[in-house]
Fold this protein.
Amino acid sequence: MQPESSNGTSSGGLAVPMAWLCAEYIADEMLRTGALVGSGSLEFRAGRQTLALTIYLCDSANELGGVRGVSRIDEWLSLTSYGHPWQEWVQERLAAREERERNLDAGADVDLALARDAWSWLRQTELLAADLGDSGPWAAAGPLDVPVDECEQIWTPAWQLGLPLSHLAIHLF
């Protein structure tokens, strides 16, 4: 027997996180199309989670399906661009969604729970990456005439590696 609804609104049925799964699918397709890193790598996961979180949090009405979702590519590019305060934006959007969830008093939002888990993983997981000499995430690099030693590596939060990867994947899509 099929549930009355596939978005978690049916009474007593299985709650299916369609908005999050749709965002994750779009992010996965963009990263695979860009072929920037291997699909089994932690770097790929960081990019997919970062981009999925961006896509999911851009959609306030859970209308990610089809053309409407992909038509927001310019917005996703802007949000993942160099210098945009992405981390603060994510925290604000998650807080707003959590507030809305409390006000609706309709039970736990499975999409929001997955988004929270993704954000937690992106903040808590550190990946070894080339030290580009930046003083912070997406900070202006040093002088251009000083070469970067790509063999020097540092531990960086997964979202800081996933953000530029996401941005490049969107451009290549």
Notes: The first strand starts at residue 126 and ends at 130.
